[in-house]
Write a structure and sequence with these properties.
Blueprint: H1 3-29, H2 40-62, H3 68-77, H4 85-106, H5 108-115, H6 118-121, H7 136-139, H8 148-167, H9 180-197, H10 207-219, H11 235-254
Helix pairs in contact: 1-2, 1-4, 2-9, 3-4, 3-8, 3-11, 4-10, 8-9, 8-11, 10-11
């Protein structure tokens, strides 16, 4: 597939992934949203459907990696050329940022109402406050208990599950892959990871899913938005990247 195919498919696919995934987080979080308070089940299934939609949309164009961890896993496994990796990663980051901006546009009124409500904001964050702001969870992940080793390990384990599930698709079908059915299986795997392994860190399992929207959070003109928690931002990037490489290695050792 050509460089332009990769760029177009990964940019649009990742934008849709973040639009729908970030959208369910906004729907559950923001005041004056009809889905406010719908809870963790809504978030996990919302992200699963986001993966399903984005993978189906981009699969025939770029292969629908939509995730640097998947791209690295496929490169280690041998299914993706290393020369194509930078194009995949750059397109995914761009798409993630576009998707986050679209979430803000879609919920513009709710963002303003939420961030100007004294019951929500309380005392406005001090200038220069770098801690998590009141809507940062819509854009990126955060741990329930801050322990760098545990948080990274959690992301590594969850990402290994995801990438291995993708790499092993079609092994029972003479290695031909599962086609459209693969997108559904991947989406269900993401739901399962969210339900089972998402509790400690919010299961980024995708570096650009966290980094792209976090950059957008830092740039958007949101009143009283607080900090973007950059001290934690490396964890949902490094953990999934390690997990993707490990999954590729495990696949080569155990499944080939």
């Amino acid at each position: 597939m050509s460089t332009s195919d990769i760029f177009i498919g990964e940019t649009i696919g990742t934008a849709v992934l973040i639009l729908l995934g970030g959208g369910v987080c906004a729907a559950v979080t923001l005041k004056h949203s009809k889905a406010r308070g719908a809870g963790w089940l809504a978030i996990t299934f919302g992200w699963g459907f986001a993966v399903l939609t984005a993978a189906y949309l981009a699969g025939g164009v770029s292969g629908a990696h939509l995730n640097p961890a998947v791209t690295l896993g496929l490169a280690v496994e041998g299914g993706t050329e290393w020369a194509d990796v930078p194009v995949y990663l750059g397109s995914q980051l761009l798409g993630a940022m576009i998707g986050a901006v679209l979430v803000w546009i879609t919920y513009y009124g709710q963002f303003r109402a939420h961030l100007t409500d004294p019951e929500i904001v309380g005392t406005p964050p001090a200038p220069g406050d770098s801690g998590p702001g009141p809507v940062l969870g819509i854009f990126s992940t955060a741990p329930e208990i801050r322990n760098a080793v545990q948080n990274v390990t959690t992301e590594v384990i969850a990402t290994v599950v995801l990438v291995l599930a993708i790499l092993t698709q079609g092994l029972n079908d003479e290695g031909n892959g599962l086609g459209v059915l693969g997108a559904l299986i991947t989406a269900l795997v993401v739901v399962g990871i969210g339900l089972s392994l998402g509790g400690p860190t919010g299961y980024a399992i995708n570096p650009v899913r966290d980094l792209g929207p976090r950059i957008v959070h830092a740039l958007l003109p949101l009143p009283h938005k607080g900090g973007s928690d950059w001290s934690y931002a490396w964890v949902p990037v490094v953990g999934p990247l390690i997990g993707g490489v490990l999954a590729g290695g495990i696949y080569n050792i155990a499944f080939t």
